[in-house]
Amino acid sequence: MAWSDFLGNAPVRDLMRQSLSDGRLPSSLLFAGIAGVGKGTLAHFLSKAANCQKLQNDFCDECGSCRKIEQGVHPDVRTYAPDGAFIKIDQMRDLIREVFFKPFEGRRRVFVIDQAHRLRLEAANALLKTLEEPPETSLLILVTDSPNDLPGTLRSRCQRIQFYPFSPAELESILQQRSIYPTRDLPLVGRISRGSLGKALNLDLQQYREARREMLEAIRACTGALSYRQALQITEPLASARQKGQFEFKTGVLYDLLRDLLLIQQGAPPENLTNLDLHSELAEIGSALTFERIVDAVGSLDHLMKGLGRNLNKSLALDRFLFRLSGVSGTAPT
Q: Can you give the pLDDT of all 334 residues of the chain as single tens digits?
């Protein structure tokens, strides 16, 4: 691996490389951008470049330091990630103790806080003074997909580095080189991924299509008279998803379909749709729904997603979504 192997966001890569070389790299950085655009990878590259034994402000991927960082065992490079749902105060207390030690083997200590938006408030507050006055021998990098979920006091103490989604052309070129998907599927993969290379590389297209068909049937059932029995048949498979990731995946597919329906309602060009291959089918379904019903349903879906962390009853919340989309108000019909 080398700096040139970093994909996408070339201006960000070049800025970090030059700043490190010039000795002007801020000690507290906030890497912000959607998932899968290289934030964690660039933090990894910086860790190596700051400590490589063969090269100055670059990395060889061959020396003992580079190999240890790659294996996650270098004493001067640490990554803190959520312990369960959150990054806890004890983890940040450990960082605060460690950050003031001089490097053990390398030239600079690097502390990466992954998914920093999951810092508990007390953990974020404990970190403030360290971010404001870190020692010169330490580099702190906060990595987040949701910078606005971080306290403003924490954001203000870091130099924000914004990462941008891959362009459709960049994404399609990379995927074509890696021969992961048939050429005919590349446009769909690109639209589903919305500029996230990580999402594109890890997407199970067959699983997406199966989930899409299931969610499409749920939407279609809402275009006519909806009985509560129908609602149960539609929501039970989704509500019973054992893994949170599976539930969020299917809900994400549902969001894609609803977005497409809204775009069709507004007369947007077909190429703006995520599911362009279903344009005719979506147009037919959309003709039986009003813009207001779709917006109302999206609002109830947002309510559902925000309530997952509060142990919201998924079955009842999904029923509410279906009733909103079908135009049913009040209590659930029997």
A: 789 899 999 999 999 999 999 999 999 999 999 999 999 999 999 999 999 999 988 999 999 999 999 999 999 999 999 998 899 999 999 999 999 999 999 999 999 999 999 999 999 999 999 998 889 999 999 999 999 999 999 999 999 999 999 998 899 999 999 878 999 999 999 999 999 999 999 999 999 999 999 889 888 888 877 666 666 676 776 776 555 677 888 888 999 999 999 999 999 998 899 999 999 999 999 999 999 999 998 998 888 777 765 667 777 788 788 888 888 754 444 3
> In DSSP terms, which residues pair with 111 in a beta bridge?
78, 140
Q: What is the pTM of this model?
A: 0.85
Same domain, 150 and 177: no
User: How big, in percent rounded to 5, are the helix, strand and coil portions of the chain?
Assistant: 60, 10, 35
**Tokens encoding 233:** 């048949």
> Of 149, 83, 63, 139, which Cα lies nearest the Cα of 108?
139
CATH number at residue 82: 3.40.50.300
Shared domain check, 55 and 10: yes
Which domain does 279 fall in, by range?
Answer: 204-326
Q: Are residues 183 and 142 in the same domain?
A: no
Buried b (16+ CB within 10 A) or exposed e, 195-232: bbbbbbeebeeeebeebbeebbebbebbbeebeeebbe
Residue with the two structure tokens 């917006």: 295
Number of structural domains the chain divides into: 3
Residue with tokens 């019973």: 240
